[in-house]
From TrEMBL:
<feature type="domain" description="Peptidase M1 membrane alanine aminopeptidase">
    <location>
        <begin position="226"/>
        <end position="437"/>
    </location>
</feature>
<dbReference type="InterPro" id="IPR014782">
    <property type="entry name" value="Peptidase_M1_dom"/>
</dbReference>
<keyword id="KW-0378">Hydrolase</keyword>
<dbReference type="InterPro" id="IPR027268">
    <property type="entry name" value="Peptidase_M4/M1_CTD_sf"/>
</dbReference>
<dbReference type="InterPro" id="IPR037144">
    <property type="entry name" value="Peptidase_M1_pepN_C_sf"/>
</dbReference>
<dbReference type="Pfam" id="PF17900">
    <property type="entry name" value="Peptidase_M1_N"/>
</dbReference>
<dbReference type="Pfam" id="PF11940">
    <property type="entry name" value="DUF3458"/>
</dbReference>
<keyword id="KW-0862">Zinc</keyword>
<keyword id="KW-0482">Metalloprotease</keyword>
<keyword id="KW-0645">Protease</keyword>
<dbReference type="GO" id="GO:0008270">
    <property type="term" value="F:zinc ion binding"/>
</dbReference>
<feature type="domain" description="Aminopeptidase N-like N-terminal">
    <location>
        <begin position="91"/>
        <end position="187"/>
    </location>
</feature>
<dbReference type="InterPro" id="IPR012779">
    <property type="entry name" value="Peptidase_M1_pepN"/>
</dbReference>
<protein>
    <recommendedName>
        <fullName>Aminopeptidase N</fullName>
        <ecNumber>3.4.11.2</ecNumber>
    </recommendedName>
</protein>
<keyword id="KW-0031">Aminopeptidase</keyword>
<dbReference type="InterPro" id="IPR035414">
    <property type="entry name" value="Peptidase_M1_pepN_Ig-like"/>
</dbReference>
<dbReference type="InterPro" id="IPR038438">
    <property type="entry name" value="PepN_Ig-like_sf"/>
</dbReference>
Length: 873
C-alpha cells in the first residue's frame, strides 16, 4: 500500500528504554526484548498497541512480568497487536522471538556474512529482529547483552559503550553494551564473529579519549590503515569546521563482505561494505581510496547529522542524507582539490540524478509518498539533497550558513526533526525568508535556466529565465530561488570587477539571485565585451541553456580563470558536438579542429593540476551523450561517434600526449594514494588511452599492464586492452593474468567481472552468460551481483541496449533470479532501465517487452514490483 507524508501521526506509545538479550547459535538466534513503555499523552487509553514485524515468529509475550493471554493479542509475521494495556503510566513489555540469520538472504535484519553475525536495520530491518515501533520518531536508550560460542564469535559488538563481559558454561561467553544516547531502532547494530582488528585512539578537542577500532575478516586488518587515517581526519575536520565532537568512549567500524549498500551509520558501531574499508596499493585503485575516504567521513558525520538529530519520518530522509553528503563533499574538497572534487560531484549528479529527475522514477527531494522506502535512497534524495544544502550555503554566505547550522545543532539535538525545522533555523539565524527556497524540496524535476546576453555601447545585459516542466511527480511549477554564480572574463583571462548598474535581480558579490520567472542584470561602462562565465561551480542543480557564441565558449575553455568554469566550457562544447554527430549518423566527423586543438592543449597546460587536465581531456561517456540526445537515442550511433572523436583527438594529439606522459613523474615502487599522485596517474592513464588509440595496437597497454606496480595503473591498462583490443592475444593474456593473480581476492575479482561485462563487443552477451555460471559468481553476494549485472547494464551501453533486445532480456532474467534472494539489490539494479523511453522505437519496444515479462511474474518482491510499476507507468 501507499504511505503518505500527509498521513503522518505521532506515535501513540513511547518506548523509553530497550533491554535486549541475544543468544547466538549455529542455526538459530533467540532474542529477548524488554521495553519500558508508556502511552503518549492525549491519546485514547483504549487504543491497542500495534507493533511492526517482518517475517517474525513470536515465542513469548508478557506485560509487567505477567504473560499476556491469547485473547489479548494477535501475532502475525508482520504485526503484533496487543489490547487492554495499562491506560496510563509506565509498563514493561517483554517479547521473545526466534530468528534464523543463516537463511536471511535479504541481508536486512540479523544475518550471517561469511559466518559473521551482523545487522542492517535502516530503514525497516529492526522489525525483522523483534516486534517494535520501528519508526524513526521513537527514540530509546538501549542495553544489549550478546551471548555466543567463544570460538565462533570471540568478538561481540553493539552500539554505545562496552559494559560487563565474561565467560559462560559450555564454551560460551557474553558481552554487554550500553548506549546512553536515545536513538531510533534503525540505528541499532550487532556484530559477532571471528574478526581481526586495527586499533587507534583519538582525543577530542575537549579532551575526551576515544578508542577507535576497525574490525575485518581474519588477516585483513592491515588493509584498514587508510580508513583509520580517514576516520581521524574526519573527526578533526568536524570539530574545526562545524564544532562537532564525538560523544562515546569508543567508535567501532566493521567491514562486512555481504552488504546491500555502501555503509551504515549505526550509533558507535558503523557497519561497512568491506569495499569501503579495505585497501592496498596492489588491490585498490585511486578511485577506491577516494571512495573509502568519502564513505568513512560520511558515516562518521552522520553521528551529528542523522544520529544526534534524526528524521521524524522517512519522508525527511534528505534531512540527514543531503546534509551529510554536503558535509562529506566539503571534507573531501578541503582534504583534496576543491575544483576537482566539485567537478566529480557535478559529473555524478548529471550522470545519476538528472536522468532520475527526468524519467519515470522522478520524485521530489522530499517525496510525498512511497510504497517501499528502500527505493528512495536515491540520487535525488542524496545528491540533489546535498545541492540544496550547498545552495543554502551560497545564498546565506559562509557565516550565515554556520550560524544556521549552530542553531540547528543547539535546538534540535536529541530530536526527530523535519525539513521545516531545519530551514527555520537558517531563517531565524540570518533573518532570511526561506519560504521560496523551500520549494526546492517539494518540486521535482530539473529546472532549465535560459541565459541570453546583449552587448551594446559598453553595456552588457544578461537576461535570465527559469522554467520547470510539470513532471511525472505531478508537482507545481512555481519559480524557485536559483543562485547563479558568474564571472565576466576579460580579454587577458582575468575576472573584471564589474558591479551591476541596473536590473531586476538582486546581485550579491558574484551571485545573481534569480527569484522570479525572468530577470535582467545590466553592467555598464565596459571597455570591451567580456565573456560571460555563468553558473560557476554549478551553483544550482539546473540545466543551463546559455545562448553564447561558439567563439566565446572556445575562449572560456582556454582561459576561464575559474577551473570549474573552464572544465564546463570545454566539456559542454565537446558534449554538444558528440550529440550532434550521433544524431547526424555515420560518417560525420564529430569534433571540429579547433575543439580538438583545445582538448589537446589542456593536456599540456602546466598551470592546471594533472587531475584537472585528466578530467578536461576525457570525452563525455556514452550514457552522458545519450542523456544529451534526450530522445530517439541510438546507442550504436553514439558509440561510433565517440570512437571517431577519440581517434581524431588521439591522432592530432599523439605527439603532445607522448611528451606530457613521458614528463610525468612516476610512482616507481613508492606508492602514495595522495591526491596529487593520484592526479598524475589519472592523467598518465588518460593519455595512455589516447596513445593506444593512435597507435592502433595493444603494445603500449600490454607493456603498461606488465610494468604496473599498483592497481590504478594495472586496471587502466587492462581496461584499454579489454575494451579497445578485445580480440587480441594481449587482451586475453592480461585478463587471464589478472584472474590468476586475484581470484582469491573478492574485491579485485569484482573488478574482473565488471571489466569483462563492459567490453563493448558483440561477443559480450556470451561472456556475461558464461560469467553468470562461473564458479566464482554468486547471486547471494551483492557486490558480485552488482559487478556483473550492474556492470553490464550500466557500464556497457552498446551491448545492454543491443537492438535485438537480448541485453535487456538477459538482465531482466537475472533480476528475476536475484529478486528471490535479495529484493533490495534487485530493485536497485532494475533502475538501469529508468531511461528506456528515451531510446529509438525498436529498442523501446524491446525494453518494454523485457520489463513486462519480468513484471508479469507473480512472485515479485514489493521492492522490485514498485520499481517496475513506476518505470513502466
Ligand atoms: N544511511 C546509510 C548511509 O547513507 C545508507 C542506508 C541505506 N539503506 C537502505 N535501505 N538502502 O550511509
Ligand atoms: Zn548517509
Amino acid at each position: 500500500q501507499v504511505i503518505r507524508l500527509s498521513d503522518y501521526r505521532p506515535p501513540a506509545f513511547r518506548i523509553r528504554h530497550v533491554d535486549m538479550r541475544f543468544s547466538l547459535n549455529d542455526g538459530h538466534t533467540d532474542v529477548e526484548t524488554v521495553m519500558e513503555m508508556e502511552r503518549a499523552p492525549d491519546t485514547d487509553a483504549a487504543e491497542p498497541l500495534v507493533l511492526d514485524g517482518d517475517a517474525l515468529t513470536l515465542i513469548a509475550l508478557d506485560c509487567n512480568g505477567v504473560a499476556i493471554g491469547a485473547e489479548r493479542f494477535e501475532a502475525t509475521p508482520d504485526r503484533l497487536t496487543i489490547r487492554d494495556l495499562p491506560p496510563s503510566g509506565p509498563f514493561t513489555l517483554r517479547i521473545a522471538t526466534r530468528l534464523t540469520p543463516e537463511t536471511n538472504t535479504e541481508l536486512m535484519g540479523l544475518y550471517r556474512s561469511n559466518g559473521v553475525w551482523c545487522t542492517q536495520c535502516e530503514a525497516e530491518g529492526f522489525r525483522r529482529i523483534t516486534y517494535f515501533l520501528d519508526r524513526p520518531d521513537v527514540l530509546a536508550t538501549y542495553r544489549v547483552r550478546i551471548e555466543a560460542d567463544r570460538e565462533a564469535a570471540p568478538i561481540l559488538l553493539s552500539n554505545g559503550n562496552p559494559g560487563e563481559h565474561g565467560d559462560l558454561d559450555g564454551g560460551r561467553h557474553y558481552a554487554v553494551w550500553d548506549d546512553p544516547h536515545p536513538k531510533p531502532s534503525y540505528l541499532f547494530a550487532l556484530v559477532a564473529g571471528r574478526l581481526d582488528v586495527l586499533t587507534d585512539t583519538f582525543e577530542t578537542q575537549s579532551g575526551r579519549d576515544v578508542d577507535l577500532a576497525i574490525y575485518t575478516e581474519p588477516g585483513l586488518a592491515d588493509r584498514a590503515a587508510y580508513a583509520m587515517d580517514a576516520l581521524k581526519r574526519s573527526m578533526v575536520w568536524d570539530e574545526r569546521r562545524f564544532g562537532r565532537e564525538y560523544d562515546l568512549d569508543v567508535f567501532n567500524i566493521v567491514a562486512i563482505s555481504d552488504f546491500n549498500m555502501g555503509a551504515m551509520e549505526n550509533k558507535g558501531l558503523n557497519v561497512f561494505n568491506h569495499k569501503y574499508v579495505l585497501l592496498a596499493p596492489d588491490t585498490a585503485t585511486d578511485g577506491d581510496y577516494a571512495g573509502v575516504e568519502t564513505v568513512i567521513a560520511h558515516e562518521y558525520f552522520h553521528n551529528w547529522t542523522g544520529n544526534r538529530i534524526t528524521c521524524r519520518d522517512w519522508f525527511q530522509l534528505c534531512l540527514k542524507e543531503g546534509l551529510t553528503v554536503y558535509r562529506d563533499q566539503e571534507f573531501s574538497a578541503d582534504e583534496r582539490s576543491r575544483t576537482v572534487k566539485r567537478i566529480g560531484s557535478v559529473h555524478g549528479l548529471k550522470a545519476q540524478q538528472f536522468p532520475e529527475d527526468q524519467g519515470p522514477l522522478q520524485h521530489p527531494v522530499r517525496p510525498r509518498q512511497y510504497r517501499e522506502i528502500n527505493n528512495f535512497y536515491t540520487a535525488t534524495v542524496y545528491e540533489k539533497g546535498s545541492e540544496l544544502v550547498r545552495m543554502l550555503a551560497t545564498i546565506l554566505g559562509e557565516a550565515g550558513f554556520r550560524a544556521g547550522m549552530d542553531l540547528y545543532f543547539a535546538r534540535h539535538d536529541g530530536d526527530a526533526a523535519t525539513i521545516e525545522d531545519f530551514l527555520t533555523c537558517f531563517a531565524e539565524a540570518t533573518g532570511t525568508d526561506l519560504s521560496q527556497f523551500a520549494l526546492w524540496y517539494d518540486q521535482a524535476g530539473t529546472p532549465e535556466l535560459y541565459v541570453t546576453e546583449h552587448f551594446e555601447a559598453g553595456r552588457l545585459t544578461l537576461s535570465l529565465r527559469q522554467s520547470l516542466a510539470r513532471g511525472a511527480a505531478g508537482t507545481g511549477i512555481e519559480p524557485m530561488h536559483i543562485p547563479v554564480r558568474f564571472g565576466l572574463v576579460g580579454p587577458d583571462g582575468t575576472d573584471l570587477a564589474a558591479e551591476p548598474t541596473a536590473g531586476t535581480a538582486e546581485v550579491e558579490g558574484d551571485v545573481i539571485h534569480l527569484v522570479t520567472a525572468e530577470a535582467e542584470v545590466v553592467f555598464s561602462e565596459l571597455a570591451e565585451r567580456p565573456r560571460v562565465s555563468i553558473l560557476r561551480d554549478f551553483s544550482a542543480p539546473v540545466t543551463l541553456r546559455h545562448e553564447q557564441a561558439y567563439e566565446d565558449r572556445l575562449v572560456l575553455a582556454r582561459l576561464d580563470p575559474n577551473g570549474f568554469g573552464r572544465w564546463r566550457a570545454l566539456t559542454d562544447l565537446v558534449g554538444e558536438a558528440l550529440r550532434a554527430a550521433s544524431m547526424a549518423g555515420a560518417g560525420r566527423p564529430a569534433l571540429d579542429p579547433r575543439l580538438i586543438e583545445a582538448v589537446v592543449a589542456c593536456a599540456a597546460e602546466e598551470r592546471l593540476e594533472p587531475a584537472l587536465r585528466a578530467l578536461m581531456i576525457a570525452l563525455p561517456g556514452e550514457a552522458e551523450i545519450a542523456r544529451l540526445v534526450g530522445s530517439n537515442v541510438d546507442p550504436e550511433a553514439i558509440h561510433q561517434a565517440r570512437e571517431g572523436a577519440i581517434g581524431a583527438v588521439a591522432t592530432a594529439g599523439a605527439e603532445t600526449f607522448r611528451r606530457v606522459r613521458d614528463g610525468l613523474e612516476r610512482s616507481s615502487g613508492n606508492f602514495s594514494p595522495d591526491a596529487a599522485s593520484a592526479g598524475r596517474r589519472a592523467l598518465s592513464n588518460a593519455l595512455l588511452m589516447y596513445l593506444s588509440a593512435a597507435d592502433g595496437t595493444p603494445a603500449l597497454a600490454a607493456e603498461a599492464f606488465r610494468a604496473a606496480d599498483n592497481m590504478t595503473d594495472r586496471m587502466a591498462a587492462a581496461t584499454i586492452l579489454a575494451h579497445r583490443f578485445a580480440e587480441t592475444p594481449e587482451a586475453s593474456e592480461a585478463l587471464d593474468r589478472f584472474y590468476a593473480d586475484y581470484a582469491h581476492d573478492p574485491l579485485v575479482l569484482d573488478k574482473w567481472f565488471t571489466l569483462r561485462a563492459t567490453v563493448p563487443s558483440d561477443a559480450t552477451l556470451d561472456t556475461v552468460r558464461d560469467l553468470a555460471a562461473h564458479p566464482k559468481f554468486s547471486m547471494a553476494n551483492p557486490n558480485r551481483a552488482r559487478a556483473l549485472i550492474g556492470g553490464f547494464a550500466t557500464g556497457n551501453p552498446r551491448v545492454f541496449h543491443q537492438k535485438d533486445g537480448a541485453g535487456y532480456r538477459w538482465t531482466a532474467e537475472r533480476l528475476g533470479e536475484l529478486d528471490r534472494l535479495n529484493p533490495q539489490t534487485a530493485a536497485r539494479l532494475a533502475t538501469a532501465f529508468r531511461s528506456w523511453r528515451s531510446f529509438e522505437p525498436v529498442r523501446q519496444e524491446q525494453a518494454r517487452a523485457a520489463l513486462s515479462a519480468l513484471a508479469s511474474r507473480p512472485e515479485l518482491s514489493r521492492d522490485l514490483r514498485d520499481i517496475l510499476d513506476r518505470t513502466l507507468s
